[in-house]
Give the backbone structure.
Amino acid sequence: MDGARVSKRSTRLEDIAALAGVSISTASRALNDSPAVNDRTKQKIWKLAREHDYPFRRYMPAGPIGASGTIALVTPRPQGREGRLSDPFFLELLAGVGEAARERGCDLVMSHVSPANMDDLNAAMTTSRADGVIFLGQSTLHSAFNRMAETDGRFVVWGAELPDQAYCSIGSDNIHGGRRAAAHLARLGRKRIVFLGDLDPPEAMQRQRGYQEALEAAGLGVDPDLIVPAHFEVESAEASVDSMLRRGLAFDGIVAASDLIALGAVRALLQAGKRVPEDVSVIGFDNVPFSRYSRPALSTIAQDTMKAGRLMVSKLLDHGGEGGGRSERIPTDLIVRETCGG
């Protein structure tokens, strides 16, 4: 493009990008003073913006302490979880991202957008003035994220790693976590172990897969009657356990897909006069802070949310290409407390 032909009154971002010989997204990041763009490129683009009267100052960070960048957090409409900001695991994950952003000198912006389809994802990416977007959850958007990975949008997703995945996801080793929980109950001599949780979200499906692998390895087999749906909330888990007890379903162990589900299960068991762990052993998943303070204290599978936050922020800011780079799994650990013993 001939620089002389660009009108100062109608200069667009596309014009600045073309003059600089960079992509539109790189020009946008440079004008936002993003740490993902090197200083030489920034200076070149700023110079062009000034020369062509492009009002780039209004696009630059306006934080009171001059943050080195901005990260947007977007929460897709969830599968299984309620999606409330008060969800204890969500708060732990948010804290992990926040601490990592602070270490990098970045501001953190929580978006009101809750995408449910490809158009929503595009809107979340194109209307954000942040250096990149972290999506806290996959929901039903795996295919849409794959399509978005073909664009130059900079994003990372918290969630499972799935077949044919083209985008970067950071998440826990859910299969290993589910396997460890069920294997521990089997070692305690439990024979009728329930998997209690929502069966649709990718992470819960992987936890169920680990549970099934552990039962098969222990020679217990998988009884479909012992795979029981429950949403990621206390009341839903209580209702599911109450229903099992009313139907006379025999069980002596529960692997829950989350700590909220596990706590609901324990509450229902105690109200029905069952002893935990003597009659029924229970293991949750998440290791949210209040799990250690419940009575009896909840055994659980721990997810390292601080490490997750650091990885997501690092992938977003440091990866040279688009889409966040290679996916990674975070190890899960079995935390044995009072609800299962041993």
